[in-house]
Amino acid sequence: MAFNLTDAKARMQGAQDALQRELGSIRTGRANPHILDRIEVEYYGAMTPLNQVASISVPEARILMITPFDKTVLDEIIRAINISDLGLNPASDGNIVRLAIPQMTEEGRKDLVKQVKAEAERAKVSVRNVRRDAMDAVKKDKELPEDDARDAEDDVQKLTDENIKAIDAIASDKEKELLTI
To answer: Which of 47, 93, 100, 139 could form a disulfide with 40 if both were Cys (CB 3.0 to 4.6 A apart)?
Structure first.
């Protein structure tokens, strides 16, 4: 049997997971350690994720504190944050790096909401591509009786609808978070 609903379910869940990772890195007006997930630091000649060379904590609502495990990497952490697209200015006291998360403007919030909607749409397209692949597999499976094929197509559509609804909910939650002052 060429059609596999479990595979389609896993791929659709993967689209949701990818959306949550992407949205986690979008900066809000509050400190969130996940905005640093994509930052890599040069550490002994190799690019290493920031969270593997330092601990990241949130001592206050709008402050991120980065404590390197090895103090020699402090300058590299600052350099990596400066060249990132986060728009944050790191401040160091020689032992730790502090990142103050600035208050977001209304215009900035609206731009981020547009970005959230674009990411959600990409996730939906991904889910629809999985649906198309699954529907094609059902149609190509000649061993599948007609009634079973129709049931399988209905199952794929229900799965798609559930995942699109979940993606909308994830995006809606992030939009509320962004628009909350």
So the answer is: 47
CA dist 120 and 52 (Å) reads 29
At 34 the pLDDT is 82
97 SS3 class = strand
H helices then E strands: how many in the chain? 5, 6
Rounded to 5 degrees, what are φ and ψ at 142? -75, -20
- Closest CA relative to residue 152, chosen from 164, 140, 163: 140
pLDDT at 165: 96
Give Cα separations from 67 to 36, 77, 162 (angstroms): 13, 10, 41
The letter for the amino acid at 155 is D
Give the other-Cβ count within 10 Å of 135's Cβ. Answer: 18
pTM over 0.85: no
Intervals of the chain under pLDDT 70? 1-3, 27-29, 181
Rounded to an integer, what distance in angstroms lies between the CA atom of residue 138 and that of residue 4? 9
Distance CA 104, CA 70 (A): 33
* Angle at alpha carbon of residue 13, lines to 140 and 31, rounded to 5°: 155
